Records
---
Amino acid sequence: MNEHTAPTPDERLDALTAELPREIAPPPEVWTAIRAELTTRSTNARRWDRWRLAAAGLLIAASSSLLTVVALRTRDHARTVAVAPAASRAATPAERELPARLVSAEQGYLRSTEALRRKLDERRDSLAPSTVATVERSLRIADSAIAEARTALEHDPSNAVLAALFTSNYERKLDVLRRATELAPRT
Amino acid sequence: MASALSLVRPAQTSPSHPSGLASGELAGEDTLVDRARRGDMDAFERLYHLHAGRVHALCLRLAGEPVEARELVQDTFIHAWEALPRFRGESSLTTWLHRIAVNALLERRRRDQRRTARVSLVEDEDDVERAPSAGGFVAPTDVATAIDLERAIAALPPGVRRAFVLHEVEGYTHEEVAGMTGLATGTLRAQLHRARQLLIRALSL
């Protein structure tokens, strides 16, 4: 039997295919174009995220102020009509406490916001200073809105509008923290 | 293809890893991936230089012409940058980049097909997708060389070319190619058979 038979067409094709170069360097301008595109996208994304965070902060401030005014007016009107003498006396310690369901909700919100805050603090160095400033400003607005709603609730614990405002302010604070931690890459 | 072939580097393949990188380079690559995930553009540039040659070779053979190949390389690495936080390392980075490149090509073909469908009834992908460098099959005039084979591959009908490049050149299994291209393995085998017949005839093997 002849061991040196001519290769078949399939074998010759396989041999040629195996010799094809596995790497063909692209021209240098390809990376230049990629880098330019990524830089543009990154700048646009940062601009958009800062805008969203700032908008969230403004929304908290605006809705908080508006709803607090509405809620307090509703409360004052009810007190004037129903029990006028009660409106003038100072609230008792019992009245200053939040309803149990709100206390429980607040504890949950505090746990969540603290966890996100820790995460954000760990990744803070990877965020642009301007983004950190926007986040902090939004968080201060959120905290102020929460405190405002809380004080109003302590005086009027049964006010459903104030209760909704109180929880929605916490939700918005959580939203700001979530977005900010998503912006910051993991370390 | 000739201008692209002047940029050919020697093959750097490793039997131990599909990326063709040595183990030390792979360890370094993991670090680069982590840094790039955190937005480090310099780390991503190094990853680009490690992989661009293989991605470009694949794109060149899939597209069959250099201009679209360069655009595909750009699309691939731009998408890779955005998707890197989701890269879990379940496949090698090379395989992951190749998948992105194939998807980018298929997406372009779908767009082309939609445009073509506006003016004509589309029945066969291969009828719509013309080989960019030649209207028909290129018969080499000299002996069968690597350059002739590159030209012949570039002149294959696009679907057949994809199957041949991914399976015969890049070494992906039938199942992997089917997963990348969305083809049934039976169709893939038929395309591979057709590719071999066309290449053998074109190269007079």
---
Amino acid sequence: MTAIAAESARRRVPVSHRVPLKRVTQVELRKMFNTRSGFWLIASIAISAVLATGGVILWAPDDQLTYSTFATAIRFPVVIILPLIAILAVTAEWSQRSGLTTFTLIPHRGRVITAKAISSVLIAVAAMVLAFAVGALGNLLSAAVTGTTLVWDVTWTQCAYYVLGMVLSLLTGFMLGVLIRSSAGAIVAYFIVTFVLPTIFGLLADSQQWFRDLQPWLDIQFAQSGLFVFQQALTGEQWANIAVTGVTWLLIPLALGLGVVVRAEVK
Amino acid sequence: MITVEGVTRRFGSFTAVDDVSFTAQAGRVTGFLGPNGAGKSTTMRIMVGLTRATSGTVTVSGRHYVDLPNPGLEVGVLLDASAQHAGRTGREILTIAQQYMGLPRSRVEEMLQVVSLTTTEAARRVGNYSLGMRQRLGIATALIGDPAVLILDEPANGLDPAGIRWMRDLLRGYADRGGTVLLSSHLLHEIEVIADDIVMIGNGRIVSQGTKTELLHAAGTVVRATDLDVLQRALGELGTAMNLSEDGALRTDIDPVLVGKVALEAGVALTELRTADAGLEDMFLELTATNQREGAGT
């Protein structure tokens, strides 16, 4: 069995080139699928999209069987699962300690994190395409089954808003993964940021007039809510809200996290 | 070749590695020996850029590790065989390394053969692997890029005796073909059977380094015989110091060859004759005694 090693050790690699980012991204993408947990998380996007669609067909009132209802229903499971995928892509390197190999093979950690960000966004976009397709099938099916008229009440622009909103949710998870570097901690933090904080902000806005005026500039969920309603184009001010909350809640913590990640010991 | 120059690493007020310098030569197996918590692993992590040195530098084949464009092709690293995602199969872990390095796909199967992992074993998830299997997989990952330098932290941990023998032959062959091998261990015997050069570290400092022969030779000869009194008298005529240890062995500074000749002339049957490794062993035991740390992360 040593014979092969014996021959190959003599063969010298002539010149080695820096590992291109494209290749690192491909490997990171593969790593998101090739663990048991990763595989089922990604599979669960498809599964939950189908279940949500089935639920709409079964229980939604006939007059609400429009495409936007399907798209909104699918959003709820996906908005939870997608960020988990991004979180685990980052934290597994520390929690599972595989970073010991990853950061040895690619010693510039910033490149690994960039590759993970790109592959996470690619998965998010693919998941949204899938969600829209499942929703469309559901819409066609429900029209056929219930005999209602087929309603396509979502424009391409609104689809793009929706994808942007999902990518921002995913990046929130990604940011928490980079900042916290522990799977459990980052997941808990994500649920707090996504579900607990908006509730607190909502209560605060109900009771305090000054906060109600400031909320679009402070509350990232509130600022992004316009992306998911399938109603009208966003105003310039709404875009500004998204940009301001995005910088304070996403970019700044992400930059802080990156500064730590570059040095953080993989135990 | 690996060159370590004046490397120091402090964690707060604790100095894990204190002004460590040594070289691991090409064509030789260098054993990095020290008790748990002595600073071996920290030194190795600094070598591959996972931990930053507070001061000092390490170069691998004349360059800093982080400047290597595709490190896997030049340095094979195994720091902790258990540090793998438990939900990934052995083959996938090798495939990831193969893809990072941009190697042909066939290398994965080749390496599985080299480390004797069967197709069914390779298809199992690493969470179900024994430590020995993880070590084999880790060695495969280190070797897949066909590097000129190997850095292995406690690679024999968890291997069965046949596995240790296999690894020894593998590393010996690697060094004989001009490769540089640096391996660490907290077991003197392990290092003794495989290394050409030994670097001994304790409490973050190098306490001794040199070729194995140099380090082992200083200690003289241990001899046992059926009739020890006769032998003792015969050796005494040579006029050198010797002492009888409690377990009935005679220690002397005389060369083993000469002891054998004297015994032959005196007509005493020897039951044991060997070079004493006590110098290194005593030093090592002393280090371990002052540094009793069961299972501390090395």
